[in-house]
Design goal:
The chain is α/β, with parallel strands linked by helices and 209 residues long. The protein is 29% helix and 29% strand.
Length: 209
């Protein structure tokens, strides 16, 4: 795996402005020059959106996305994936939900949205109290889940039980809990937010390798 620190990206939360899949990436047109400097050798789509990853959730080799998400983004995703569109009230569902093998976890969200995703995926939903949005503080790749170290041991055990994934705790970008947006990963590359410490980078690389 090639590890790259996203020094050229304008913000430390690299996953806000781009998302990397195994065979391609989607990024904001505003970051095109910066991303090209990183020499990521996969197909790239650039679209006129300021944010990318918060709009969707990867699940079972498909994509869950709100029906009111930008059409330009949905059009590209539909080329590569089976898409599950849900008529959510909120459209930044990647911030809100963490989907596990045994259930869906959230801390804040519209009850109608929770009910719709639970029914669509045939999974129970569990509300766990924390000040953070669960989707934003967890990074899932290849059945491994890295979750914020700021959560209590009791919550982490509950997350492990509900998700059924291999779990560890960590941080990114010099102590930030927002792992989903500080890490982009596929089978060949690991892109890390530019403010991340050496310890954080090693932890992420060792966990996901």
């Amino acid at each position: 795996m090639i590890v790259k620190k996203a020094d050229h990206i304008s913000i430390p939360s690299v996953g806000i402005v781009m998302h990397m899949f195994d065979d391609f990436l989607i990024a904001s047109e505003s970051e095109k020059n910066n991303i090209e400097k990183m020499n990521i050798d996969i197909k790239k789509y650039y679209i006129e959106l300021p944010i990318i990853t918060p709009y969707f959730i990867e699940y079972n080799n498909g994509i869950i996305i709100s029906s009111n998400a930008p059409e330009e983004l949905k059009k590209i995703l539909k080329i590569h994936f089976d898409i599950i569109e849900i008529d959510f009230i909120e459209n930044l569902i990647g911030n809100i939900f963490l989907i596990g093998k045994n259930g869906i976890i959230y801390s804040h969200g519209k009850e109608k949205d929770v009910k719709k995703i639970s029914e669509k995926l045939s999974l129970p939903a569990y509300k766990i109290k924390t000040k953070y949005l669960f989707g934003s503080i967890s990074k899932l790749y290849n059945n491994k889940l890295l979750i914020s170290q700021e959560l209590s041991d009791k919550i982490i055990e509950k997350v492990k039980e509900i998700t059924g994934y291999i779990i560890d705790i960590g941080s990114i970008n010099f102590g930030s809990p927002y792992l989903r947006y500080g890490i982009e990963i596929n089978k060949e590359y690991l892109i890390i937010g530019k403010y991340s410490t050496g310890h954080e980078i090693v932890k992420v690389e060792e966990f996901f390798s």
